[in-house]
Amino acid sequence: MTCDEAKRILERLDEIEILLNTILEEVRELKRGGGIAEQRHAPRSFIELLRERKFIPLGEVKSRQALRQALERGLVVVLRDEGANKEVVVLKEAARELLNKLPISVKDAEKLGERDYELLQILNRLGYVLLKGGQYIKTELAEEFYI
């Protein structure tokens, strides 16, 4: 087993623990009688939601405990996007995948999926990515997503 494989397994175990804690939190809420009408759909993991959407506004986070655990384990970061005047929770894995595509031309960047392009714009506004010579390139700040 390589170091990368072991790291991915440990990250997945962390995600499973967060999912279990989220489910326990939702069960406690149901037992208290709150939110039964809202629970029609199967509960989705905080990390699964982020994998699908790559980032979400902080205000949309339903489980603060799941967020705290994901932050402690280094799976996500919360970024203050001054340009859009909001805070977003970004899945580090999604940011790494996008950053690994750099350098990328402006034309190729526009061909990215909507969420990837929006994430690229957030990272650009925050200085993790720069637009230089018609290409997006990552800066030293981007190393935060690899830790």
Describe it for me?
Helix content is 48%, strand content 17%. A three-stranded antiparallel sheet has the order 1-3-2, sandwiched between helices. The chain has helices at 3-31, 46-53, 64-72, 92-99, 106-110, 114-125; strands spanning 55-57, 76-81, 86-91, 104-105, 129-132, 135-138. A hairpin with a 4-residue loop joins strand 2 (76-81) and strand 3 (86-91). The protein is of the alpha+beta class and 147 residues long.
Using DSSP, what is the number of strands? 6
Q: State the separation between the terminal residues, measured CA to CA.
A: 20 Å
Rg measurement, Å: 17 Å
Low-pLDDT stretches: 36-43
Oligomer: single chain
Shape: globular
Largest sheet: 3 strands, antiparallel
What class would the helix/strand composition place it in? alpha+beta
- Strand arrangement within the widest β-sheet reads 1-3-2
- Series of H and E elements: HHEHEEHEHHEE
Number of helical segments? 6
Topology:
Layout: H1 3-31, H2 46-53, E1 55-57, H3 64-72, E2 76-81, E3 86-91, H4 92-99, E4 104-105, H5 106-110, H6 114-125, E5 129-132, E6 135-138
Antiparallel strand pairs: 1-3, 2-3, 4-6, 5-6
Notable traits:
147 residues; alpha+beta; 3-stranded antiparallel β-sheet; 6 helices; 6 strands; globular
Quick structural overview:
The protein is α+β, with helices and mostly antiparallel strands. It has six helices and six strands.
